[in-house]
């Protein structure tokens, strides 16, 4: 049996806006296994970023985590609910044991400091190094690990002296500088050129093996899922609609939404040739559709779909779907 590193249960986040309460994610549950790459996929606005940020309480006002638990299994065998930790306690884990890489390297780096300083800072803050001198020395090794040529001189560069791809390598280097157990990458390549995207994904795979990290990868790209992930959760309008291995999801998609997503993208594994889009738009999350949130766009809607929220059901070992068809 694979061993879970995270057990997420009924995670719910609401945003209290003037227009009303945005029910961004509702009772989201999934496990992440130690050492795997777990992808979260879905259209824009479906709640991927909110889910990944909520794992370490990284939700700012007007957002609030209103329910659920995130059980983290530490390497020493103890477990902790990350949502129950105080701000100080969670800050100690975030950036050290659980690190993030965000989409936009420009926003992740401070233009006023050299990249070496910024990598060193991440290690100094979490006491991975004993002082700044050691931090700056280690920063050179990290730049070398993320395959930046001439790291001894690059370490003194300011962000504006680097290309977008190189900056994202620095951000990734900062992310892995404390040797995190879990790396959460939210659309890490979306802001980059297509050719650079492949290089960055390669680099993340390499580092993941080298550091024995668990990777949670947020993406809207099914091709990236096929390329990178072991398992995948498909989200729609703030709910997980299907979870399974990449093989299960690509070869035997059960949820009508997953089936639509796979038809909407050229899919190397299932060899689907046609391009189709899913009619309709993502619903407003202030007043989400009753019952199954996908029912207004679903080709198979039944009476029960309007009335009852479908629960995730295990259809074959490890393959879960939330749909009244099953
Ligand atoms: N600060 C906020 N105030 C109000 N609503 C918010 C806020 N942040 C997020 N939301 C809502 O939460 C929902 C989920 O957003 P989230 O950013 O998680 O989507 P996403 O799947 O990551 O989309 P994308 O692919 O565009 O990054 C959206 O409906 C969004 O409108
Ligand atoms: Ni996002």
TrEMBL record:
GO terms for biological process: peptide transport. PROSITE patterns: ABC_TRANSPORTER_1, ABC_TRANSPORTER_2. InterPro entries: AAA+_ATPase (IPR003593), ABC_Ni/Peptide_Import (IPR050388), ABC_transporter-like_ATP-bd (IPR003439), ABC_transporter-like_CS (IPR017871), Oligopep_ABC_C (IPR013563), P-loop_NTPase (IPR027417). Residues 8-262 form the ABC transporter domain. SMART domains: AAA. It holds the Pfam family oligo_HPY. Its EC number is 7.2.2.11. Its main location: membrane. GO terms for molecular function: ABC-type nickel transporter activity; ATP binding; ATP hydrolysis activity. One of its GO terms (cellular component) is plasma membrane. It is a peripheral membrane protein. It catalyses: Ni(2+)(out) + ATP + H2O = Ni(2+)(in) + ADP + phosphate + H(+). Signal peptide: none annotated. Keywords: ATP-binding, Cell membrane, Ion transport, Membrane, Nucleotide-binding, Translocase, Transport. It is found in: Cell membrane. PANTHER family: NICKEL ABC TRANSPORTER, ATP-BINDING PROTEIN, OLIGOPEPTIDE TRANSPORT ATP-BINDING PROTEIN APPD. This is Nickel import system ATP-binding protein NikD. It comes from Thermococcus celer Vu 13 = JCM 8558. The lineage of its organism: Archaea, Methanobacteriati, Methanobacteriota, Thermococci, Thermococcales.
């Amino acid at each position: 049996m694979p061993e879970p590193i995270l057990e997420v249960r009924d995670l719910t986040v609401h945003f209290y806006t003037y227009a009303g309460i945005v029910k961004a994610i509702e009772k989201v549950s999934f496990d992440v296994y130690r050492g795997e790459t777990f992808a979260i996929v879905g259209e824009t606005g479906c709640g991927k970023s909110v889910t990944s940020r909520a794992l370490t309480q990284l939700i700012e006002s007007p957002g609030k985590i209103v329910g659920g638990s995130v059980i983290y299994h530490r390497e020493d065998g103890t477990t902790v609910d990350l949502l129950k930790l105080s701000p100080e306690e969670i800050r100690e884990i975030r950036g050290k044991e659980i690190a993030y890489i965000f989409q936009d390297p420009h926003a992740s780096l401070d233009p006023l400091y050299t990249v070496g300083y910024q990598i060193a800072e991440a290690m100094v803050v979490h006491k991975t190094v004993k002082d700044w001198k050691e931090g700056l020395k280690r920063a050179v090794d990290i730049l070398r690990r993320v395959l930046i040529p001439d790291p001894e001189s690059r370490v003194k560069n300011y962000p504006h002296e680097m290309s977008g791809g190189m900056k994202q390598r620095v951000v990734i280097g900062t992310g892995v500088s404390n040797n995190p157990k879990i790396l959460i990458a939210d659309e890490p390549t979306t802001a980059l050129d297509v050719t650079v995207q492949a290089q960055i994904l390669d680099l993340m795979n390499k580092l993941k093996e080298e550091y024995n990290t668990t990777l949670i990868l947020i993406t809207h790209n099914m091709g990236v899922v096929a390329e990178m992930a072991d398992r995948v959760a498909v989200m729609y309008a703030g709910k997980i609609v299907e979870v399974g291995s990449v093989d299960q999801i690509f070869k035997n998609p059960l949820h009508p939404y997953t089936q639509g997503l796979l038809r909407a993208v050229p899919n190397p594994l299932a060899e689907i040739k046609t391009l189709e889009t899913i009619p309709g738009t993502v619903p407003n999350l202030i007043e989400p559709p009753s019952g199954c949130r996908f029912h207004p766009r679903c080709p198979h809607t039944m009476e029960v779909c309007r009335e009852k929220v479908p629960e995730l059901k295990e259809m074959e070992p490890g393959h879960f779907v939330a749909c009244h068809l099953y």
